[in-house]
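Morning!

This is the sequence you dropped in the shared folder:
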Amino acid sequence: MRTDTQGSYVDSGGGRDGWRETATRYALLPLRIFLGVTFIYAGIDKLTNSAFLSDSGAGSIGDLMRSVRDSSAIPALVDLALKSPVGFGYAIALGELAVGIGTLVGLLARLAAFGGALISLSLWLTVSWASDPYYYGNDLAYLMAWLPLVLAGASVFSLDALWRARRGGRAGEYRY
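The structure's back. C-alpha cells below.
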C-alpha cells in the first residue's frame, strides 16, 4: 500500500487529498438520490392505489396489517394501525412522500433521513419481521441505508448546503 502524497492524474488541482475530499463529499449522493426517488415513488404508488387505501380487500392496508399482526415484533403497533387502517395508510404514504422529497432536494436532510429510518424501522418490526431468512425482508436494508444520511446529511446539491453557504457568506459555495 502506497502512503506517499504525490498528486494523481485524476485530480490535477489538489492532488490525491483533493480527490479524496471531493469523493468524500459526493459519496452519499447516489444513496440520497436512490432513497429519495424510491420513497417518492412508494408514496405516490400508495396514494394512487385505491385498493391499498382501503379498510379491507385484496391489496388493502387493512388486510396487510391483519395478516402480519400475529407475526410482527410489536403487535401493539399493528393494533394501533388497525384502529384506522386507511388513516395509517395515508400517514405512511404522505410520510414516504415527504421523506423522499426532503432527501432528494436536501431540505432538512438529516430530519428527512431520520423520518425514512423510522418508517423503515416500523415496517421492519411489523410487515417484514417474519421474513425468513431475515435478509429477504428489504425494510432492514432500507433502515441501514438511511443511517449514513442521518449522520452526515446532504453535503452537496442540496438546499441545506445552499442555506449553510449563504449564512456563512459564501454564496457561490454549495457544499459543506
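Headline: Helices lie at 15-26, 29-47, 61-68, 75-83, 85-105, 109-126, 138-152, 159-167.

More detail when I'm at my desk.
O.
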